[in-house]
Sequence to fold (155 residues):
Amino acid sequence: MTAHLRVRHYRLTFAVAVTSAGLFALALRSRVVPPVEAWPSAPVRADVLQTRPDAFAPTPIGFEIVAMGEAGTGVRLRSDSPVPAPDLLLYWTPDAVILEDLPLGAHLLGSVGRLGPEPLPLPAPALAADGSLLLYSGAHRRVVARAALQAPEPR
Fold:
């Protein structure tokens, strides 16, 4: 009697394995790949409001605050040498306290892995009050550098 149940169990296990592999292959073939937006090839036209080439000392990264017309105000990072830490992210915070970790109210502006001509948009609170720009290394999980940022004067 046990031999009959073992044979049935073997056959059912085999059928489930073949069916699940087939369903998995069918699911992979029928999935929809979301479209990827490309980076704009032409740099955004921007008027420079403020320039600080050595703002993130001791790192070789500086920044420019730029007015981008209808797109608002942004920050463009500049550097003549490679990025000093892996997986750098740029944050804005209204806090001026120097910490190793990110403050709770920090706003993520974007990734610094590719220093390019496109400015990163500043959040509305950064346009109204002074604060700090933070370079945060996701790999090291600490703030690498900090730069004071004065609120841009309205035009």
Residues 2-30 form the longest helix (29 residues). Strands lie at 47-52, 61-67, 73-79, 88-93, 107-111, 120-121, 131-137, 142-149. The radius of gyration is 26 Å.
